[in-house]
Design goal:
The chain is α+β, with helices and mostly antiparallel strands. It folds into 3 domains: 127 residues, Methane Monooxygenase Hydroxylase, Chain G, domain 1 (Up-down Bundle), CATH 1.20.58; 152 residues, Alpha-Beta Plaits (2-Layer Sandwich), CATH 3.30.70.1660; 76 residues, Double Stranded RNA Binding Domain (2-Layer Sandwich), CATH 3.30.160.20. Helix content is 49%, strand content 19%. It contains 9 helices and 11 strands. The chain has an 8-stranded mixed β-sheet, sandwiched between helices. A 3-stranded antiparallel β-sheet has the order 6-7-8, with helices on one face. A hairpin with an 8-residue loop joins strand 4 and strand 5.
């Protein structure tokens, strides 16, 4: 009996220490993310949205909503964290008043709340790693088929689905801008926009070359094939960031949008393709029925890509002056997805890997992103 009591007291003490550790983490996180300032800012932004003239400026309204979502992305999980911690404390107090099986049940419930709190804390800790200038912004994404022919086009479509599923898990919205179908299957290219708090901060970890190894469904001999697709990300910048686009530097082409046939077919040349002549950057948008709206969307994406281009030019100049540093940038293979002869997805930058290929293709890529952000925070990864 004495031994049984000693074991229970030890278990109670372990739970007490677990709660104490969580309480200390919450206090440190509160200071680190400046939760008081964020609450004040969130309240001010929410008050701004209640004003009658809020929607007089669409662009300013969108900017305010985005800023609100960014602050809410910290405040809501922090509130959930503190509430869950308080619930754990209450359950632990009840456990201390119980004995035997009742106490064990109450301690188990306490640990369950602690695990929930750990989840909220992990989310906040991840967001605290997102301190880049544009990490809180929406993001433009381009997927492009590389070597591999039809197999590579199919790979682009698979990756597009993977990122759509990932966006769903984050509560983000995906808006397709343009796509170029493959000759036999899949997509040669697809442009899309992801809207949500820290979309760019997260998805910039995915920028690079993605390599697929599998038995090709397009090969009658069932041979193993290797194909490649590139993933490019550009932050959607605010309107107050100056990027000059001269009319004489633009070539504007219009064409008929693709899509449904029958009564829904678009019989006008409403799709717009913009070519920035000095840089050669090309963007296109075709989803709106109005040519004017398609042009506005394309210009927004072009501004973002030009900003990225000019920043890359500045960085290249700095590298030439100070000495270029080796980095995992655009054009380098970042991850391998092996479907055969074994199943493995491995990130070649962080060494993080998993055998759950199906889970990854269903959008469960958060561990890869977190591993890269951790590496970046430690100073061993380079990214803007």
């Amino acid at each position: 009996m004495a031994e049984e009591t000693k074991e229970k007291l030890l278990e109670t003490e372990e739970v007490r220490q677990r709660i104490a550790k969580l309480a200390k983490q919450v206090e440190e996180m509160s200071d680190y993310i400046k939760i008081g300032e964020r609450r004040e800012k969130l309240a001010a932004l929410e008050a701004e949205q209640t004003k009658p003239e809020f929607w007089n400026s669409q662009s300013k309204a969108r900017e305010t909503i985005a800023a609100t979502n960014a602050e809410r992305a910290y405040v809501v999980p922090f509130d959930s964290l503190t509430k869950t911690l308080e619930d754990a404390k209450v359950m632990f107090e009840l456990a201390e008043m119980e004995e035997g099986a009742a106490q064990q049940s109450a301690l188990k419930d306490t640990l369950t709340e602690c695990e929930k709190a750990d989840g909220f804390f992990a989310k906040l800790r991840l967001q605290s790693l997102l301190g880049g200038k544009f990490d809180g912004c929406n993001v433009f994404v381009k997927l492009h088929a590389g070597q591999g022919g039809t197999e590579a086009c199919d790979w682009v479509q698979m990756l597009y689905r993977m990122y759509q599923r990932y966006a769903e898990t984050q509560g983000w919205k995906v808006e397709e801008y343009d796509q170029q179908p493959g000759e036999e299957a899949g997509l040669k290219d697809v442009y899309f926009r992801v809207e949500g708090p820290y979309a760019f901060g997260m998805l910039k970890a995915e920028r690079g070359i993605h390599r697929l190894v599998r038995i090709s469904p397009f090969d009658s001999n069932k041979r193993r094939q290797t194909s490649f697709a590139s993933m490019e990300t550009v932050a959607e910048i605010d309107d107050d960031i100056d990027v000059e686009i001269k009319d004489e530097d633009l070539r504007i082409d219009t064409y008929r949008s693709g899509g449904a046939g029958g009564q829904h077919v678009n019989k006008t040349d409403s799709a717009v393709r913009l070519t920035h002549l000095p840089t050669g950057i090309v963007v296109a948008f075709q989803k709106e029925r109005s040519q004017h709206m398609n042009k506005e969307k394309a210009l927004t994406m072009l501004r973002a890509q030009l900003y990225e281009y000019y920043e890359d030019q500045k960085k290249a100049e700095m590298d030439r002056f100070y000495g270029a540093k080796s980095e995992n940038g655009w054009g380098s293979q970042i991850r391998s997805y092996v479907f055969c002869p074994y199943t493995m997805v491995k990130d070649l930058r962080t060494e993080y890997e998993t055998s759950d290929v199906n889970g990854v293709m269903d959008g469960h890529i958060q561990p890869f992103i977190e591993a890269w952000l951790q590496m970046k925070a430690s100073g061993t990864a380079s990214a803007r």
